[in-house]
Structure formats: C-alpha cells, structure tokens
Amino acid sequence: xxxxxxxxxARVVTKVRGTRAEGCGNAYVFVDEEDVGSDAAARLRDCxxxxxxxxxxxxxxxxxxxxxxxxxxxxxxxxxxxxNADGSRGEVCGNGLRAAALLARTRRGSAEGALRxxxxxxxxxxxxxxxxxxxxxxxxxxxxxxxxVPCDARRAGACxxxxxxxxxxxxxxxxxxxxxxxxxxxxxxxxxxxDDLREGEPLGxxxxxxHPAFPARVNVTLxxxxxxxxxxxxxxxxxxxxxAACGTAACASAFVSYALGLTDPSVExxxxxxxxxxxxxxxxxxxxxxxxxxxxxxxxx
Length: 301
Known about the structure:
By secondary structure, the chain is an alpha+beta fold. The protein has helices at 2-8, 33-36, 38-59, 94-108, 206-209, 247-259, and strands spanning 15-23, 26-32, 66-71, 78-84, 89-90, 112-116, 121-129, 132-139, 158-161, 167-173, 176-184, 188-193, 219-227, 230-237, 241-242, 266-271, 274-280, 285-290, 292-300. It has a 19-stranded mixed beta sheet that branches. It is globular.
C-alpha cells in the first residue's frame, strides 16, 4: 500500500495554503476547500493519512496537534474532516470546532451558525468581548453503551454499570492497573477519576490508548474534582499524545463528574492550555472557551 501511494504521487506536488488556529493551546492547521479548490482538497484527503506527520513537522511539529480540512457542505457552513498528528482520523474535535467557528467569524462575519463533523451537526456562537473572543459549540449528548464507544468489555479485567448507565472498566496496561469510565461524545473516551494529576510526569497512556478493549483506540483523561463547579484534567489524545487541551475530553470528564455526583452540571475544566466551560444539558453538551487565529502557512502535498 505504501509503495503504491508513493508511486502514485511521486511526480505530483501541490502547494496549499492553510491557517494556524487553536483553542486553549489545542492547535491545528486548517485548510479551507473554498481557498484551495476541490481538486487540492480531494488530494489532501487522499494524502493526509500518510503525510500528516511530515506536514506538521515542516510547519512546527510539537506545537501542532493535527490537520483539519474545512470542506464545503450543502447544509452547514463547513464540514470538518480531522486528522490527528499521526494521520489517523478523528470523528470530532471540540477545540477544532471552536477554532473553525472563529475562522468563520474572522473571514465571513458569522457570529453564529452550524458546522458538521463526522459525528453530528454543531451549532456555534462567537462572542467578542475585550481582546479575546469566546466561542461556544454544541456536542451531542454522551452515549454510554459499549458499542457506541466502541469497547469490547471482554478484553477488560472487569466491567460494571455505574450512575446514569456509565460503564466502569478495570484495565491493565503496561503493568499498571487502571479503573475508569468509558463513553462516546462523538469520539471514544476513557475517563480516570483521580486525586493526583501527576503534574510534571509523563502520562504514559500509550498502552491504554491501544488497549485491546478499544478496537478504534481511545482518548484517555485523568480527571480530578476541584470543587462543585470545577475539575482539572490531563488528556492523552488518540493519535496525538498529551495535548495542552482537549475539548471533547473536557465534555466527557464533565459528564462523568456530574454523573458521579461530584460536580454541578455546569463546570469549568482546567487544563494545561487554559480553562474551558462545559454545560451538561439533557439533550446536548455545550463547550465554551477562548480561541485564536494565527498565521497563514503554506505546505506541499
């Protein structure tokens, strides 16, 4: 497959323009199909699973968590196609949605609208107050069924049902024992409640990300209760490693904390890259926080 791919594109080089944008330090390169044209967008879709690590290395490496293509869509402003740092696909990216919404506001004056991911349609609102825009997006309500994650509980040490139907797993990875809750907020998450976020130490969650219980791999988050209206988290993102912030992990952690009776339905989520707000509603999750648009970039595909 790799040889066929290399042969197919050996003599073709296309330069595309993109934009750096981020939410709480969760940074991506965005490429808009309207800017580059449908042919270049199709080529980027074809190349991204193989070439994303090379592109990110050329554009700054460790400061970038992936590539997001903003595709034209008949029903929404844009459809987001997300590739993680290793080139794997992500169904949805919470901070990517928020940054894309700010891009729409910056370029087209859209203070509110809708964006589509592989998992859902997401409404957004951009509020500019002072020097830092604040962006809110909606995500679908969590799904706690194991097949929605997906999760094969037979590969775990034990599985039990907790509050609000949450599934609690006991897992062993790289010789370490873990206990946490699995759920989907459009992409798969494992939330590990803890009293110690192990600040300054590597998370070392590669074994959990690729555990046999998770056929599509999983995002892994340490979650600590701070107060009735605040939690703190560290997240190892599937395909990217630990990131400064993760929007969908903030949502998953807020839901788990609320379901366990640890916090209120509205909480602030403190992450290394900044603070996000999450509101757990009966029919959706609302993610809010700062976002910023950076420099234009150009790279070869």
